[in-house]
Structure formats: structure tokens, C-alpha cells
Design a protein that fits this description.
Blueprint: E1 5-8, H1 22-28, E2 30-37, E3 46-51, H2 59-73, H3 83-92, E4 97-99, E5 104-111, E6 115-121, E7 130-136, H4 137-147, E8 151-154, E9 160-164, E10 169-173, E11 179-188, E12 191-194, E13 197-200, H5 201-210, E14 214-217, E15 225-229, E16 236-240, E17 247-248, H6 256-270, H7 274-285
Antiparallel strand pairs: 1-5, 2-3, 2-7, 4-5, 5-6, 6-7, 8-9, 10-11, 10-14, 11-12, 12-13, 15-16, 16-17
Length: 312
């Protein structure tokens, strides 16, 4: 039996539970994926395999995949035993919960020595109940680490305009005022996917200028990190994007008002708005995929906006 570890997905890992472009498949070492469901009774087991890079489907990989899936079907785990057991296991691991298209799903990652198996689980009857995307672990981790640099957008003179986290969207406005949004994926520091197209960041800026188009983040992005105030004590804390909880700092003056001023000074140097700060605080304390973790949920002073006051 192959040894493996199993844990809930981190927020950045969740996007790898969906089909990737050919470019990203190659960069992340995506071998293929397994799709499965539990049938009408909820305890059957039907699967279909889809190749991405069959040349990487070695005997060692096949053994690891079989061992991991069989273990997850066993009573020890139960994640892939039935729909009811999938719900049980997911609820026992609250950090695995993630918002799907129409329901709460569960995300897990199983690692063997060389391979990463990234699972998206949906215990809804009548739908496919799980997808297991299979990667060369070293390649996947390298891409995730590099993508934490965020996607750069520049103008045609190479001036940086903004950055967005990997997987978020931009709005492009044409010369007639028509707008369209596009998902963006990190390729490297000089290339990005916008929609289905691969661009050098200079090429994208030049094409936008030539077409009379402007571009901006679809929503205010979360910064990589910021400072905030711990509500219960008034201490200055550091919050890192996608991480639960916070890191204590040595910037505390013992007075909440003075700590607020210290926090605002450091956030100002980082270019972090009060809305972004409040969204980061909510994400670290509640859930990163909650509406409270979106900067658009707050006004310029960091006060929560009632749902009717902002455009969804």
C-alpha cells in the first residue's frame, strides 16, 4: 500500500480541481483526472478516466492512484465510500468546505512521494460526485508558489497598473463602452492567460491601447498581506492572504488608538485600503470565500455596506 497524506485544500489549490488550459496542464504536470459518482442509490461507484498527458502515466503513477482511491473508499476514510459518508467526512473537516456553483463542496489533497491528487467533492444526487485531478507534485507546487506573486498588468510603456491574484478576473471596456470580464491565470512573471488566450504582458497592453480599450480588476483584489487590529485586544496583527488566523507583531504601543495609527501607517505604505484590510480580517477569521472577505463589501472607511447598497 502506498503511503500518502490527506488534508483539506488551501484556497490557492482549489482552482486546480478544474480542467486547465494546455499551457497550464504542461506547467503543473497534469497527468489526467478521474471523474466519479455514487449512482442513484448513493453507494455505488462509477468512474471515468480522462488523459491529459498519457506519456506521464507510469506504472508507479497508476499504483499510487489506485492505492489512494481505494483507501479513500475504505471505512478508515469514507470520503469516496458513498454520498452520505462524503458529507460526514467533509463536515468533520470544516476547512475543506468551499463554495461550488450551486452548493457547498469539499476539497482535499492527497500526496504520495511523487504525485498530488487534488479532489473536488460534490455529494449532490444526480451530479458527478467527485473529480480527482492528478499532478506531478513537484511541478504543481512550483506553479502554486510562483503564482503567489500575482498577475501583473502594465501599460504600453511598461508602467505597472495593478496586480490581481491568480484566477481572478479583469473587466475590459472597449472604445464604445461595452464591457466584458475575463478570468486570468498566472503563467510566469511576464505571461498570463486572459480568457482562453495567452499573452506576454507587453503584448496585452499594446493590443488594448491599439483597440482603444481599458482594463481593470473586476473587483478590488485582496493584497498579499496587511496589518489589522485584533478586535478582542486592540493589538496590531499581520494577516497573510488565504491563511487562517493571524501573526502577532511587535508594533504594539499598548493603546488601541495609537495601534490604529501604526496599523494605518504600515497599510498606507503597502497601498492597502481600509476596505481591503477589513476583507482580509474577515477572511482570516471566517472564510476566504465568504462575502465578508470581499473588499467590495466595505466602503472607503472600512465600514460594512448593506447588501442592497452594492452591486453583486
Amino acid at each position: 500500500m502506498t503511503d500518502f497524506t490527506l488534508r483539506p485544500l488551501t484556497v490557492p489549490e482549489r482552482k486546480y480541481t478544474y480542467a486547465q488550459s494546455s499551457q497550464l496542464q504542461g506547467q503543473t504536470g497534469n497527468i489526467g483526472h478521474l471523474r466519479g459518482d455514487f449512482g442513484s442509490s448513493g453507494d455505488q461507484f462509477y468512474t471515468t478516466w480522462f488523459d491529459t498527458r498519457p506519456q506521464w502515466k507510469s506504472d508507479e503513477f497508476k499504483r499510487d492512484l489506485d492505492d489512494v482511491i481505494n483507501a479513500l473508499r475504505s471505512e478508515e476514510y469514507g470520503l469516496l465510500q458513498s454520498r452520505s459518508q462524503m458529507v460526514r467526512y467533509g463536515r468533520e473537516n470544516k476547512e475543506s468546505e468551499m463554495q461550488g456553483a450551486y452548493t457547498t463542496e469539499f476539497g482535499f489533497r492527497a500526496d504520495t512521494e511523487k504525485y498530488a491528487f487534488v479532489l473536488r467533492c460534490n455529494p449532490t444526487r444526480g451530479d458527478y460526485n467527485f473529480y480527482c485531478f492528478c499532478y506531478v507534485k513537484e511541478w504543481l507546487d512550483k506553479h502554486i508558489e510562483e503564482a503567489n506573486r500575482d498577475i501583473r498588468f502594465i501599460d504600453s510603456h511598461y508602467k505597472e497598473l495593478f496586480r490581481i491574484p491568480d484566477g481572478e478576473r479583469i473587466i475590459v471596456t472597449d472604445r464604445d463602452g461595452k464591457t466584458e470580464s475575463y478570468p486570468c491565470r498566472y503563467i510566469d512573471n511576464y505571461h498570463t492567460e486572459v480568457g482562453r488566450n495567452l499573452f506576454h504582458i507587453c503584448e496585452f497592453a499594446e493590443r488594448m491601447e491599439q483597440g482603444g480599450c481599458t482594463y481593470a480588476p473586476m473587483e478590488p483584489p485582496l493584497p498579499p498581506m496587511c496589518y489589522s487590529i485584533l478586535p478582542s485586544t486592540g493589538e496590531v496583527i499581520q494577516i497573510d492572504r488565504w491563511q487562517n488566523g493571524y501573526t502577532a507583531t511587535s508594533f504594539n504601543d499598548g493603546n488601541r488608538a495609537e495601534n490604529e495609527a501604526i496599523k494605518d501607517k504600515f497599510n498606507g505604505k503597502l497601498g492597502v485600503s481600509k476596505a481591503q484590510e477589513q476583507a482580509m480580517l474577515a477572511g482570516s477569521m471566517i472564510r476566504w470565500d465568504s462575502i465578508a472577505a470581499k473588499p467590495k463589501s466595505y466602503d472607503e472607511n472600512g465600514k460594512a455596506i448593506k447588501p442592497k447598497d452594492y452591486e453583486r
